[in-house]
Automatic annotation (TrEMBL):
Alphabetical list of Gene3D superfamilies matching this protein: Transmembrane di-heme cytochromes, Chain C
Protein name according to UniProt: Thiosulfate reductase cytochrome B subunit (Membrane anchoring protein)
Keyword Cell membrane: yes
Organism (species): Euzebya pacifica
Keyword Membrane: yes
PANTHER family: CYTOCHROME YDHU-RELATED, NI/FE-HYDROGENASE 1 B-TYPE CYTOCHROME SUBUNIT
InterPro entries (UniProt xref): Cyt_b561_bac/Ni-Hgenase (IPR011577), Di-haem_cyt_TM (IPR016174), Hydrogenase_cytochrome (IPR051542)
Top-level taxon: Bacteria
Amino acid sequence: MRTAAPSSPPDLLARAAHPRVIRWTHWLNVPILAVMVWSGLRIYWANDVYAAGIGSWEVFGFFPDGFYSALGLERRLAKGIAFHLNTGWLFVLNGAVYVAYLLGTRQWRHLVPDRHDARDAVDVVLHDVHLRADAPPHGRYNAAQKIAYTGVLLLAFLIVGTGFAIYKPTQLSLLTGLFGGYETARLIHFWTTIGFSAFVALHLVQVARSGIGNLMSMVTGFEYSAAPDDQSTGERRPEDVSS
């Protein structure tokens, strides 16, 4: 099925940017991740064990008591567990649809880094911080984006895997053992969640830097850019996008 692009101003060309499945799974993750983090913090409050320190002297704790009190997280552990487990299945299902689409349509070829991307990613970062005049050429995603998006996908697999390991440590003892036992699996789950949250924060900063057009392309599926007049008709034509 092909859907005509929305009408664009006469001096702009609409280019297909993001297929519908990519957009839907992307936006569904917004409320899913919000609930997962909220409920996960409520669970962590009940056993807030991770901190930096020397011996018994704690130098740094991730979340002080005031943090939990301000967000109303210092009670209702059972509610947090119920929301976390049920929403976790939505996260798994949404992620499975996304991965299946990448594999089925071979869109993964635009996403997985190649052997040149590590070097090009440095140039992308230098360009972003205004230490390099020109960004290296790229396809749908630049080198830094490909590394980041592939990395966060691997983090998601770790989050799900360790989540199951600490949810059913006896029934899934082989999986729990693969992660080094319950305590190690819980530690990995905690740090991968921190890493995932850091990616989301950085992603929001980059979206803000890139402007409203980049954000709207994830809503409409199209990017708009100036284009020369069509040689045969003198008109500028929007492209179609496959859905």
